[in-house]
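2.7 Reproducibility. Because tokenized structures are sensitive to small changes in the input, we list the exact sequence used for AEC family transporter, including any N-terminal residues retained from the expression construct. No trimming or masking was applied before prediction.
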Amino acid sequence: MEVTAWMVADRIFQTIFPLLAIVLIGFIYARKRPTDMSVANKVNIDIFTPALIFSVMSTESFDLPNYYPLAFGALVVILASGLLIWPACRLIGVKPKTFLPPMMFSNSGNLGIPLIVLAFGESALPAAVVLFLVENLLHFTLGLYILDHKTRLLNLLRMPMIIATLAGVAWSYSDMLLPPALRTFVDMLGQIAIPLMLFALGVRMTSIDFTHWKIGLWGAVLAPVSGLLVAVVLQPFLQLEPSHFAYLLLFAALPPAVLNYMISERYNQEPHLVAAIVLIGNVGSLLFIPIVLAFTL
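Resulting structure tokens (single pass, no recycling of outputs):
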């Protein structure tokens, strides 16, 4: 059957609309009723997201070695993006410590997981989780090291997401199945994670500050362009299967993670600039992501 431009546009709409609708609900609700999502975000990071990770990685259908090339591709996209953008920091007039983390570490949780699943179906969830894990592992190691060279990397082992990852991989290799009642319990916890991520993103969008719109605009363009350039150049060497290359392209086009702002605030690394980069970058993704979807669907 011939694929028409209308069919592609409809598929893009079917993918983007549910995400935007939940984000918009979070935005409208927080505008009318100022909302503190700190507790909900902590619960999501500590319970719901680890449950999602364990749910995906502990299934009998999850074949970890199948995702090694994709994981390596994500690793290179993150690192090479930082190297490409580093020289631009002087041109823009911003400190690398401020600008590079948002350019390297993308919104692979709040936006990446639901986007990939809606675009390619539930079968893409394991790949989306793998990409999310690569990004988070680098963010909590290299990302923190960029801001503070005294960061203790062993603290990673205390993170619920890392514990869930290790437990899920171990379980997948054990050839054991979770009892049905326990599987349902874990799955239901995990299903809370994605809608809550999107709602929290909408709440965060209420704090958009256009005071530093120029640096935000630079970030909105450089983050996806650098990532996509690296992914395209990398493909002839990795030879990813078409579906995995499509996932990598979407991952490369994602905007900066909201977590960048939280971490910059913690380390007092010009959080007002990072907030502009993150939030304007997420608004800019409304342009870049449909373009990438048009080429991958």
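The chain has one domain: 8-296.
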